[in-house]
Automatic annotation (TrEMBL):
Region (Disordered): 1-54
Transferase is among the record's keywords: yes
GO biological process: methylation
Identification of the protein by name: S-adenosyl methyltransferase
This protein's UniProt keywords: Methyltransferase, Transferase
Superkingdom classification of source: Bacteria
Organism: Nocardia mexicana
Pfam families linked: Methyltransf_19
Amino acid sequence: MARTEGHTPPHPGDDRSLEKPHPRWRSATVTPVVEGNEGSAPESDRTPHPLDTEQLTSARVYDYLLGGKDNYDVDRDMARQMLSSAPELKTLAWFTRSFMRKAVEMAADAGIRQFVDLGSGIPNSPNVHEIAQEIEPEARVVYVDYDRVVYTHCDALLAGQPGVAALLGDVRHPQEILDQLENHALINLDEPVAITMISVLHYVMDEEKPADIIAAFRDRMAPGSYMAITHGSSDSDPAILQVLTGTKDTSAQVAFRSTPQTEAFLAGFELLEPGVVPVQQWLRSDLPETRMVMLGGIGRKP
Ligand SMILES: C[S@@+](CC[C@H](N)C(=O)[O-])C[C@H]1O[C@@H](n2cnc3c(N)ncnc32)[C@H](O)[C@@H]1O
């Protein structure tokens, strides 16, 4: 695991997080659809604990699926169970990363110069800043995740990258993230911004009001801003949904939702074509369907 020296990451929701040093610019009702996953443990039980290697986390399971090495047995066990029901999951993970790439490119091509990647995950190239800065070298990118392990990786691995910063933040507390972005002058919310929430919202339970979370960000975004989301679909194969019940009461517990439910998250944005559809359809017409369906959608604030 990568480590940062002499740097204690703040805890989201902890007042100390607001006192932390200025993040350095580097040189610069909804239906619960996973049967058996209905209801959930309190938020604190579904927040990753950095020293608990017995508890799987979505970041590390995803890291394994993407071919990374920052994962433990418990993460690999879950990933392997998922792969036994849907062997093409690794491919889907890369389709989803390609959707993220497309969304960032669309926003950068439209002139967006600041990006916030919410639920950024363990860095995996190409990361948002690499994509955005290929189009606009001055683009600024803030990576936000509530998992201290992810935060530490982002902080350490992205060190030295111009215009890149990492924050510890929980999307279930959007106001705290917005305040940090503003207080530390990381993002000018008076200017258009692109926010990516790639495969994050399905970890937010119904009672945590995912639509309100998006609305909180939307209401602070300037006109012309972009919001890109992907979300696990309740139309996925029941076998894979069954495997995912094994995540219950962990931070990786999922609530997959239908297309209309996912589309509703982008209320108040102009929905860009082709709308909220499996991510493959955003990429090419000849890509195979997958048993786990990942919906992708991009909205532009009018
Ligand atoms: C499946 S991974 C996706 C990572 C990355 N977005 C990608 O597409 O490669 C989900 C990520 O969302 C983060 N996450 C889940 N719930 C979150 C929350 N409430 N606040 C912030 N991050 C969250 C996890 O820690 C994890 O890194």
